[in-house]
Design goal:
single chain; Alpha-Beta Plaits; alpha+beta; 2 helices; about 30% helix; four-stranded antiparallel beta sheet
């Protein structure tokens, strides 16, 4: 399976919604066994949130994000260099 990063705008005033967004994404991913949310990273200064997924395709990740009603800018494939082989 590959890794994908979802980028989403999250204004500083809405920071409390971060945990709820991640919970909705996990629940939506659980409906599709081939998608897993691995990590959530928020960059307050840039007001951007990144969600790291493992999945068979970017399309499945986008489907999960839409199902969780997450407004997102893009889904990009990523390579993690610091993980054990």
């Amino acid at each position: 399976m590959a890794r994908f990063l979802v980028e989403s705008y999250l204004p500083a005033g809405n920071r409390d919604s971060l945990a709820a967004d991640a919970a909705r994404l996990r629940a939506a991913a659980a409906q599709l066994e081939r998608v897993e949310l691995l990590r959530t990273v928020y960059v307050p200064e840039d007001e951007v949130c990144f969600y790291l997924f493992e999945s068979e395709s970017a399309e499945l990740v986008a489907e999960v994000s839409r199902s969780a009603e997450l407004e997102f800018d893009r889904v990009q494939p990523v390579v993690a260099l610091d993980e054990p082989a």
